[in-house]
């Protein structure tokens, strides 16, 4: 028996017939959160809503996602409508949510569901995983929540609850397979002959427990339905879980952003489709490199007739991407009324910037550049 399996056996055996799954469902029936993408208790969830919310919730909190979810749903009420939308419109609507590859995949997935599945999501994890942007976690989440497939999607909340419940000493990310196995033991019992059961409710119960009770700091163990049987609580070191391998911070990259105004207009361009912030709008800028020096960055300023001198704004704009922190020096310039935009750039009214697909880092750079 492998190392992981031995550990699962050791942890699960004492409670193999334990009451945890039923306790969890009972708690969920009384305390489930009301969320815009959740149907009333007992009703089957709409796969489109589950999918849309799960993609939006990756790396983003419920509070931020709520208004975006409502906006998307009002504009594109089903996956077929989203599949017929233009990528530009989707990116524009997504602007501000960050991690823009999710928006591109969201659109590609809707197009694929419309084109290859007649606008209906496949009802198996395998079928779901073949769609753009749907990895094992999202497939399991849609499978469990929308189709009640007996599978457990493990997100950060569930990782925390399970690692505490079972005092998992292995650090993340190595502990993921073990946590996945342990989490699966918390799925609600199948009724005889019913493979589907209430898997979606079990998963959502754990998600809710992690976000409202088993929080990263100061978990409210007194209110937890699983507190009698929680290994970390019994030891008193709940907050130290999940264990994490030390994080390697990415190397700081530096660059320049050029905020150029022509009266009430701003000079912008569109980033290449592929790569970081692909397809998004930005002000012209230099490469973002580790050890980039200011002179080299300034040499990449856009060639504009009439700009004799760039004004360097005091301070820098900082932004942290998943893999690296970024520091941008911001230069500003004002040009005459009829100055033409350089190739592949365009002028947009500052008043309509909110409609542009501007990532947060660019919003910060523009605010810094236009500020007094
Ligand atoms: S008892 Fe406390 S630490 Fe254990 S699962 Fe419940 S809230 Fe989390």
Automatic annotation (TrEMBL):
<dbReference type="InterPro" id="IPR044298">
    <property type="entry name" value="MIG/MutY"/>
</dbReference>
<dbReference type="Pfam" id="PF14815">
    <property type="entry name" value="NUDIX_4"/>
</dbReference>
<comment type="function">
    <text>Adenine glycosylase active on G-A mispairs. MutY also corrects error-prone DNA synthesis past GO lesions which are due to the oxidatively damaged form of guanine: 7,8-dihydro-8-oxoguanine (8-oxo-dGTP).</text>
</comment>
<keyword id="KW-0234">DNA repair</keyword>
<dbReference type="InterPro" id="IPR000445">
    <property type="entry name" value="HhH_motif"/>
</dbReference>
<keyword id="KW-0227">DNA damage</keyword>
<dbReference type="InterPro" id="IPR011257">
    <property type="entry name" value="DNA_glycosylase"/>
</dbReference>
<dbReference type="InterPro" id="IPR003265">
    <property type="entry name" value="HhH-GPD_domain"/>
</dbReference>
<dbReference type="GO" id="GO:0032357">
    <property type="term" value="F:oxidized purine DNA binding"/>
</dbReference>
<dbReference type="Pfam" id="PF00633">
    <property type="entry name" value="HHH"/>
</dbReference>
<dbReference type="InterPro" id="IPR003651">
    <property type="entry name" value="Endonuclease3_FeS-loop_motif"/>
</dbReference>
<protein>
    <recommendedName>
        <fullName>Adenine DNA glycosylase</fullName>
        <ecNumber>3.2.2.31</ecNumber>
    </recommendedName>
</protein>
<dbReference type="GO" id="GO:0051539">
    <property type="term" value="F:4 iron, 4 sulfur cluster binding"/>
</dbReference>
<dbReference type="GO" id="GO:0006284">
    <property type="term" value="P:base-excision repair"/>
</dbReference>
<comment type="similarity">
    <text>Belongs to the Nth/MutY family.</text>
</comment>
<dbReference type="InterPro" id="IPR004035">
    <property type="entry name" value="Endouclease-III_FeS-bd_BS"/>
</dbReference>
<keyword id="KW-0408">Iron</keyword>
<keyword id="KW-0479">Metal-binding</keyword>
<feature type="domain" description="HhH-GPD">
    <location>
        <begin position="56"/>
        <end position="212"/>
    </location>
</feature>
<dbReference type="Pfam" id="PF10576">
    <property type="entry name" value="EndIII_4Fe-2S"/>
</dbReference>
<dbReference type="InterPro" id="IPR023170">
    <property type="entry name" value="HhH_base_excis_C"/>
</dbReference>
<dbReference type="GO" id="GO:0046872">
    <property type="term" value="F:metal ion binding"/>
</dbReference>
<dbReference type="GO" id="GO:0000701">
    <property type="term" value="F:purine-specific mismatch base pair DNA N-glycosylase activity"/>
</dbReference>
<dbReference type="Pfam" id="PF00730">
    <property type="entry name" value="HhH-GPD"/>
</dbReference>
<dbReference type="InterPro" id="IPR015797">
    <property type="entry name" value="NUDIX_hydrolase-like_dom_sf"/>
</dbReference>
<dbReference type="GO" id="GO:0035485">
    <property type="term" value="F:adenine/guanine mispair binding"/>
</dbReference>
<keyword id="KW-0378">Hydrolase</keyword>
<keyword id="KW-0411">Iron-sulfur</keyword>
<dbReference type="GO" id="GO:0034039">
    <property type="term" value="F:8-oxo-7,8-dihydroguanine DNA N-glycosylase activity"/>
</dbReference>
<keyword id="KW-0326">Glycosidase</keyword>
<keyword id="KW-0004">4Fe-4S</keyword>
<dbReference type="InterPro" id="IPR029119">
    <property type="entry name" value="MutY_C"/>
</dbReference>
<dbReference type="GO" id="GO:0006298">
    <property type="term" value="P:mismatch repair"/>
</dbReference>
<dbReference type="InterPro" id="IPR004036">
    <property type="entry name" value="Endonuclease-III-like_CS2"/>
</dbReference>
């Amino acid at each position: 028996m492998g190392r992981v399996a031995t550990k699962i056996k050791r942890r699960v055996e004492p409670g193999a017939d334990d009451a945890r799954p039923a306790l969890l469902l009972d708690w969920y029936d009384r305390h489930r959160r009301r969320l815009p993408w959740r149907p009333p208790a007992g009703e089957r969830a709409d796969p489109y809503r589950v999918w849309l919310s799960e993609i939006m919730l990756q790396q983003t909190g419920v509070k931020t996602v709520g208004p975006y979810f409502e906006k998307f749903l009002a504009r594109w009420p089903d996956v077929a409508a989203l599949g017929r939308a233009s990528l530009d419109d989707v990116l524009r609507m997504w602007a501000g949510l960050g991690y823009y590859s999710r928006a591109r995949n969201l659109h590609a997935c809707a197009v694929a569901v419309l084109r290859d599945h007649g606008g209906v999501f496949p009802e198996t994890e395998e079928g779901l995983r073949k769609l753009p942007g749907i990895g094992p976690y999202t497939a399991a989440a849609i499978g469990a929540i929308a189709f009640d497939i007996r599978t457990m999607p493990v997100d950060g909340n569930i990782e925390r609850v399970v690692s505490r419940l079972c005092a998992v000493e292995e650090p993340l990310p190595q502990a993921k397979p073990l946590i996945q196995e342990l989490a699966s033991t918390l799925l609600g019992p199948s009724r005889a002959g019913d493979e589907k059961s209430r898997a979606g409710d079990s998963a959502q119960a754990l998600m809710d427990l992690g976000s409202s009770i088993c929080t990263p700091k100061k978990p409210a163990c007194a209110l937890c339905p699983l507190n009698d049987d929680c290994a970390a609580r019994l030891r008193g070191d709940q907050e130290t879980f999940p264990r994490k391998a030390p994080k390697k911070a990415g190397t700081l990259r530096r660059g320049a952003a050029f905020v150029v105004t022509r009266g009430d207009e701003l000079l912008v361009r569109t980033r290449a489709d592929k790569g970081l912030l692909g397809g998004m709008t930005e002000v012209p800028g230099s490469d973002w490199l580790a050890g980039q020096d200011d002179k080299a960055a300034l040499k990449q300023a856009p060639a504009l007739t009439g700009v004799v001198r760039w004004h360097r704004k005091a301070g820098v704009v900082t932004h942290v991407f998943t893999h690296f922190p970024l520091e941008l020096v911001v230069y500003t310039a004002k040009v005459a009324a009829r100055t033409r935009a350089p190739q592949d750039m365009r002028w947009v009214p500052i008043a309509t910037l909110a409609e542009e697909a501007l990532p947060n880092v660019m919003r910060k750079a523009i605010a810094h550049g236009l500020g007094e």
